[in-house]
Amino acid sequence: MNILAAYPTYIWLTLVLYLAIATLLSVVANRYFLQWLTHLGMHTPKGQQKEIIRWASQSKPTVGGISFYAVFVAAVIAGLSWVYRKGEPMEQLLLSFLPLFVSVTLGFILGLIDDLRHTSPATKFVGQLLCAVLLIMGNTYIPISNYFWVNALFTIVWVVGIMNSINMLDNMDGITATVSASIIAGIILLLVANGLLTSFYSILALGVLGGIWGFLYFNWHPARMYMGDSGSQFLGVFLSILSIKFLWSFRPSPDSNFALQQFILPAVAFLLPITDTTTVFVRRIARGQSPFQGGRDHTTHHLVYCGLTDKQVARVFLLLSLLSVAAVLFISQHFLHNTWTYTQSVVSIMACLTLFLVMQYFYNLGKKRQQTQAAITEKLANVLQKEHTATSANERPINFKKSNLFANKKKTPE
């Protein structure tokens, strides 16, 4: 109730209306793109058919990322207009935000090119590296130590890692959009709790949240469209920016180096993407397979192998995402009031590891069931093949020449 009373009613009504308009704009844009860009991302270049493995049996247009970026640009305009009407200085905001805007735009373009041409992992990596460097140039980096080069290097690892995590998590209907929307919603609630509801980044995050909600209308199983790499790369950069500014900022002391407390909020907020990416990377490398090659070996897929449907998997990830949001809000309040202890940090890390291990259990269980099902299918196919071969051998073809059926009968003399 104190949070609601902290702002006038018209502020809340204005922001709720703004969120509704952003969602509606996303729905309209996606419906339009679905009608006119029906083949975007559906064609696989020659020679790459075997490299690209998708979960869905049918290809669908990857137009969601375009709507994300369109709503993002509209949200930037809305945010700047909001700040201007409040009478706050614009020059400093514009100078600090410009590199971030360029980075987000580069991530979107990088993904869009991949949707059209299927670029190599090396090309993607270079583009992701440039996105991270642009953020650092805009003074957006993770201050985990007193050494700038350490902070810059760690920021690059985080940005590139999140961009790949969000991209790899986009392997089933509704998963990435649900998880990303939950992370953004959690950060918005964190801003509200810190009295930053009317800040520029709060307006920006609300707009992108509405864009994801509108996209989910078309992406929930059975999906009619995908976000594509343009969407996942865009979200990867955008989530990196929000996390650096509002999740990595809880440093116990300006002189602290690698404080455990600083890692808690990002780990909890991004637990699902980090768990899926780590699992896939480690297991693919152990099999001698490229970790960047697509496959049906994600945590989401193995939950299906365990017996869940695609919709049920999306609901499980939604529930886990909401629990992560609740945990982020709970932990952040302790940070703000300086009541967080080292023991609580250890407990939080142990909870994250527990969820990771639970996912590994279901991963292995799904793998066993998949192998059992594959063995049964193979045996059944062999039995049917043998029966077909035996039936074919017993069916002798009729020799019409030797058959008495059509033998020339001698004419009887009249």
List keywords for this structure.
414 residues, mainly alpha, disordered C terminus
Can you describe this structure in just a few lines?
With 414 residues, this protein is mainly α. Helices cover 70% and strands 0% of the residues. The chain is globular.
Task: Write up what this structure looks like.
It is globular, with a radius of gyration of 28 Å. Helix 7 runs parallel beside helix 9 (228-246). It is mainly α. The chain has one domain (2-43, 54-376). The N and C termini lie far apart (117 Å). The relative contact order is 0.11. Mean pLDDT is 87; it is low at 405-414. It is 70% helix and 0% strand.
List the helices and strands and how they pair.
Elements: H1 2-5, H2 9-36, H3 64-85, H4 91-117, H5 121-137, H6 148-169, H7 175-193, H8 200-219, H9 228-246, H10 260-269, H11 271-286, H12 299-305, H13 310-336, H14 342-394
Question: Could you tell me the mean pLDDT?
Answer: 87
Strand content: under 5%
Tertiary shape: globular
Structural class, please?
Answer: mainly alpha
Can you tell me the number of structural domains? Answer: 1
User: Distance between termini?
Assistant: 117 Å
Low-confidence stretches: 405-414
Query: In which range does the helix fraction lie?
Result: over 70%
Report the radius of gyration as a whole number of Å. Answer: 28 Å
Tally of helical segments: 14
Count of distinct strands:
0
Q: Main sheet?
A: none
